[in-house]
Amino acid sequence: MSGRLQGKIAIVTGAGGGIGRAICLAFADEGAALVCNDINRETVGETAAQVAARGGRAAVVVGDLALEQTSRDLAAAARAEFGGLTTVVNSAVRDASYLKVTELPLVEWRESIDVNLTGPFLLLKHSIPLMIEGGGGSIVLIASQLARTPKPGRAWYSSQKGALISLAKALAVDHAAQNVRANTLSPGPTADQRFFSQWPSEAEAHKHAATLFGRLATPAEIAAAAVFLASDESSFMTGADLLIDGGYTVV
Questions:
Q1: Is residue 184 part of a domain?
Q2: Which structural domain range is residue 160 located in?
Q3: Total-model pTM
Q4: I want to staple 199 with a disulfide (CB 3.0 to 4.6 A). Which of 112, 119, 184, 205 is the partner?
Q5: CA-to-CA distance for 124 and 126, rounded, in angstroms?
């Protein structure tokens, strides 16, 4: 551990697996205390256990980001367990069917946007005041390379991730005076269960990486970028989108 996040207190949503879990482990390795959130009690508990096994500190808040109470609970847990908040990483996502807008049921659009866009709004509404109390901090919203280069049937996903990129820019403008930075991190295709579930097998999934390296990113590679954005190394960076996609967008 190099201690790049020593003294940081981070809320990480979507912490139950994949990129969210990798971010929690990387943050813990760098010295951050964590409030881990997921809707799945079992998987987020496993993340917290892995953090503890590495000598880190993690509290758990189980809840749906579509509900405002979950965001209230996350901010309250950061204050009660660790005395404040310096960092917010939103990695939670709710998927919808891969359909054109002419075919996508309205209920799926609404359910996805409630988590993927309204959820971050609620999280930041309750987290930013706590960050300001402590003198500022860093917000990292996990967007996607598909905000730039959509795939068929992903209009709901590309538009919502694109909105996060715009949201981070607006947050940067609104809160620079309070020393709150806001950036997005856009991963390319990543080797986690969410990506694997789109294909008949993991081997088949790797064949569809569509990157210049001919492979998927590892969750740890994405987590390394999140560490940078949360650390003081990125202190002059706000309103930006950090693209970690293996050249996907230039193929």
A1: yes
A2: 9-243
A3: 0.96
A4: 205
A5: 5
